[in-house]
Design goal:
It is built from 17 helices and no strands. The protein is an all-alpha fold and 414 residues long. It has one domain: Growth Hormone, Chain: A. The longest helix has 31 residues.
């Protein structure tokens, strides 16, 4: 079997299936939950910002110890437990709606607890992938994973928008609960054995966390990618607090139309994921990391320029370009980190990077909600677009003159 073809492996295909299913459900409910808050519960921009922030604040609160724990534990059981927890939590939303007891407070609490489970899953998933796709096949493995997951992203928003129109937003959230359960089942079917985690010494948690932080802090390349990724996530969080409000109340879009707009972005993500290996060969596996953002970032300016009627096409174009650039950046950046990081520290380094990237997300969501409440949605989208356009500068500075990963200087390697 070719090491560069992880999709030939049964265990990798199971992981792929589980994540495709979960991603479809995530995209369906990603339309349903904001619409549930805005249309059904009448949420203000600030309240929607609270719901969004609650889903990511766990990265700042427990992200670093989660990485150290994941380096101590077998990773597959952590992934299974995270999927099952999210399935159970999300199932409470349609139940509360059925009983007429659903509130913004419940959406915030469910988002918060599901965010805790997401922390363990996201850190564990990036650390578990090398067990089912060897390190020489990581770029192909990440590309295949994102390509198939993007298929769910293509179908999910459109299905979600129509399903909300037909069934109601609360009922659609049940779809995501079911898909998380299916993801857990696919993980349980994997046969590959992970390397045994090193024995943990009592009282060493703080030192292990510090080791992961120090590894990232000393590495100029990891520092740069953390800053770029944090800036992109901050901009996305700021925009996410007002996006649905902007589309519903300013552009006058229906739930089905919103689903189609998001689906257009997902089509671009699908194309970007499939093309990433080819783009990396053409532009260079290191250069493409910053180039993908530098080329597509300015298109974010199209979103605040959009309006009702034909100008809504600017929103579609801006969304599609942004998704294309972000998916290429994400695949190449994560593949680089997985390839260069020592196995024994992969959980802690991934956790450190996720905390640095996601720690600003709740801040951005609350900032975007507050600014949207005070100044309106369009100025908030202009602010987010400016941050996105500037975000590739740190990575460009760190990788200036480097074409391929193999050309990186010795200090970047473990």
């Amino acid at each position: 079997m070719a090491s560069g073809s992880p999709s030939r492996r049964r265990d990798f295909r199971l992981l792929l299936f589980g994540q495709t299913t979960a991603q479809l459900g995530t995209q369906v409910s990603g339309v349903a939950v904001p619409l549930l808050a805005v249309v059904t519960l009448g949420a203000s921009p600030l309240q929607l910002g609270l719901v969004t922030a609650a889903g990511t604040v766990a990265f700042a609160l427990i992200g670093l110890p989660a990485g150290a724990w994941i380096d101590r534990w077998p990773r597959r059981p952590v992934l299974v437990a995270a999927d099952l927890a999210r399935a159970a939590l999300l199932a409470t939303i349609p139940l509360a709606a059925l009983l007429g007891r659903l509130t913004i407070t419940q959406l915030v609490v469910v988002s918060l607890l599901a965010g805790v489970a997401r922390v363990f899953f996201d850190v564990g998933y990036q650390s578990y992938l090398p067990a089912v796709a060897d390190r020489t096949g990581l770029l192909a493995g990440n590309s295949a994973m994102e390509t198939v997951r993007a298929c769910g992203q293509v179908a999910g928003p459109g299905v979600g928008g129509w399903a909300v129109a037909l069934l109601g937003a609360a009922n659609v959230v049940l779809v995501q609960a079911v898909t998380f359960a299916l993801s857990a089942a696919s993980l349980l079917a994997i046969r590959a054995r992970e390397p045994a985690p090193p024995a943990a010494r009592p009282g060493r948690l703080a030192a292990e966390i510090g080791e992961g932080l120090a590894f990232v802090a000393r590495n100029r390349l990891l520092r740069a990618t953390a800053i770029t990724s944090a800036a992109g996530n901050l901009a996305f969080a700021i925009a996410s607090a007002v996006n649905v409000v902007f589309m519903v109340r300013t552009l006058g879009l229906t739930p089905a139309a919103i689903g189609l707009v998001l689906a257009a972005g997902s089509v671009a993500a699908l194309a970007g994921a499939a093309l990433t290996p080819r783009l990396a060969r053409r532009a260079g596996s290191a250069r493409i990391i910053w180039l993908s953002l530098a080329v597509t970032g300015p298109a974010a300016m199209l979103t605040p320029l959009s309006g009702p009627g034909r100008p809504v096409l600017l929103l579609v174009l801006g969304t599609a370009a942004g998704e294309l650039g972000q998916i290429v950046y994400a695949i190449t950046n994560v593949s680089l980190r997985q390839r260069l990081c020592p196995e024994r520290m992969l959980g802690r380094v991934n956790a450190t990077m996720r905390v640095l990237m996601m720690g600003l997300f709740p801040v951005g969501a609350l900032l975007g909600g507050a600014l949207g409440q005070a100044a309106g949605t369009r100025p908030v989208l202009w602010l987010a677009a400016a941050v996105i356009a500037l975000s590739p500068l740190p990575v460009h500075a760190a990788l200036r003159g480097v074409r391929d990963v193999e050309d990186l200087p010795a200090w970047t390697r473990p």
